Amino acid sequence: MTDLFWKGAAGALIAAVLGLTLAKQGKDVALLLTVLAGCMVLTAAMTYLSPVIDFFRRLQISARLDSGLLLILLKAVGISLVAQLAGLICADAGNAALGKALQILAAAAVLWVSLPLLEELLTLIETILGEV
Description:
Blueprint: H1 2-23, H2 27-63, H3 67-92, H4 96-131
Helix pairs in contact: 1-2, 2-3, 3-4
């Protein structure tokens, strides 16, 4: 499994060097190469998340957790990974402000996705405080 990491790292470095070379001829092609390499690395990262998803399924069954609660965590991670990659690509394209704005949007989206989890936590706290 670590081979995938090394291949992804090597591919990213090769794409970076090619991007520097192609940037002299045209920034559009270099940016496209960056996007493609970023998608490749993100795909490799998803492969590493597969065992984590399997663990979450086992945890859900063992602890009798609602599947929706664990899905929230996976959505939050997905939003964060995509936003980070897209924000870095925006910065690489010369628009760092747009990349930062995208990170703010991602934070808001993660909070929105997490609302059911936060509501469940609030209910649990109210139940505990009501029993004291």
